[in-house]
Write a sequence for this structure.
């Protein structure tokens, strides 16, 4: 079985959980004899090619024309060429990206038919433009390769998957790692929502990373429940070495690690921190990550007067993430809406007890964790205080949580995915 898989990022160059999940799944599928053709906008050459063939979209020429696709492109006229969507950009990169975007608009137009396009592979101001160009490249790839099924990860690749389906006639599976309702609440970007719904309607099967996400797909996008499957994520710790760190502070450390955006609930973490510090003034809080709410969070900490107990690390990656876990006594994921959430599993594996929001998919598979509603900062503060004040509670949660985490295998997830492929083929 050969799968043409469209992604947007792949380790070691990732911005969030999407790339990590894509790698885990492809590795699991490869172990079961599934051949993967993994397409990404811009490959750097250091990706793990043992999982299959990595196809760099920047190296593929677009078709000479769009003959035969006139009706198709009429159906997606709602897509603008340019957009201000910057879902993963930290404040430190904003000015540089805006300058690059401005310079590029002076030197090139949209049309790249019959030649290559150098994708950024990032999440910048021209994101929608790259999504459409990616779909044009998908047309060429679908003609160049033989495959049995198409798998598209998240909304950025849905259009590419649909084009490949139209050309090849092969079934399309889309993988919903998050929806616009997760990212933006009720203030959805209509363009993204329409593209997500279009992909869901065109797909032969939909894989949602949790029952929470499956319910959103069915109720908020109006999709037939019979073609929507729940396929929980897993976690891969193979090759990860134990980390021993020398702590530079004696205080207990409570960590938030993720994008500092609406979806991740950073403001609730800060409000809970203020309440904990009234009871335990020597606790140190860390917010690791970057995002569009960074400045607002810094200002809020200043107004609350807790700056001496708070530290911002900026975006962390690779070993830096593992070292942050190793420095932590408690990990908190207060997400407003988290389709799954791999980071609590990584924290537990490092020996850190976790507090997660009930509004997360990982709460469906992780029993030995403290769970609170994201908005209930009193309950969140009580949970943090409990884990810091009662070491036996923390040790028991982590011991049992470790067993749960070790039972979550990408091989098992890949087996479910492969069975869905076989049904469609």
């Amino acid at each position: 079985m050969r799968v043409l898989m469209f992604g947007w990022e792949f380790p070691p160059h990732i911005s969030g959980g999407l790339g990590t999940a894509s790698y885990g799944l492809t590795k699991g599928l490869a172990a079961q004899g599934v051949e993967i053709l993994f397409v990404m906008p811009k490959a750097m050459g250091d990706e793990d090619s043992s999982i299959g063939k990595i196809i760099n979209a920047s190296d593929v020429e677009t078709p000479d024309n769009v003959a035969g696709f006139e009706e198709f492109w009429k159906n997606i006229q709602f897509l603008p060429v340019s957009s201000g969507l910057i879902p993963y950009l930290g404040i430190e990169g904003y000015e540089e990206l805006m300058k690059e975007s401005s310079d590029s608009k002076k030197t090139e137009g949209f049309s790249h038919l019959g030649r290559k396009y150098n994708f950024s592979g990032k999440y910048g101001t021209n994101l929608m433009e790259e999504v459409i160009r990616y779909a044009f490249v998908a047309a060429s790839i679908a003609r160049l390769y033989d495959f049995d099924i198409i798998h598209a990860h998240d909304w950025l690749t849905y259009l590419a998957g649909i084009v490949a389906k139209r050309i090849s006639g092969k079934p399309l599976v889309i993988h919903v790692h998050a929806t616009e309702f997760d990212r933006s609440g009720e203030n959805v970007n209509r363009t993204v929502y329409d593209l997500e719904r279009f992909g869901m309607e065109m797909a032969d099967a939909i894989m949602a990373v949790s029952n929470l996400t499956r319910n959103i797909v069915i109720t908020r996008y109006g999709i037939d429940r019979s073609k929507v499957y729940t396929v929980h994520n897993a976690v891969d710790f193979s090759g990860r070495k134990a980390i021993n760190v020398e702590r530079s502070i004696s205080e207990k450390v409570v960590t938030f690690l993720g994008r500092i955006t609406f979806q991740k609930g950073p403001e609730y973490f800060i409000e809970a921190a203020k309440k904990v510090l009234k009871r335990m003034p020597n606790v140190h809080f860390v917010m690791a990550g970057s995002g569009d709410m960074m400045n607002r969070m810094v200002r809020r900490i200043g107004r609350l007067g807790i700056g001496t107990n708070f530290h911002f690390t900026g975006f962390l990656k690779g070993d830096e993430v593992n070292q942050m876990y190793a420095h932590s006594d408690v990990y908190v994921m207060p997400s407003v809406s988290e389709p799954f959430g791999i980071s609590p599993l990584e924290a537990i594996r490092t020996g850190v007890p976790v507090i997660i929001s009930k509004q997360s998919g990982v709460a469906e598979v992780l029993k030995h964790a403290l769970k609170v509603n994201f908005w209930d900062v009193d309950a969140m503060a009580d949970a943090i205080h409990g884990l810091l004040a009662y070491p036996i509670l923390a040790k028991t949660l982590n011991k049992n949580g470790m067993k749960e985490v070790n039972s979550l295998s990408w091989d098992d997830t890949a087996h479910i995915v492969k069975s869905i492929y076989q049904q469609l083929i």
Notes: The radius of gyration is 22 Å. The domain at 253-406 is CATH 3.40.50.2000 (Rossmann fold).
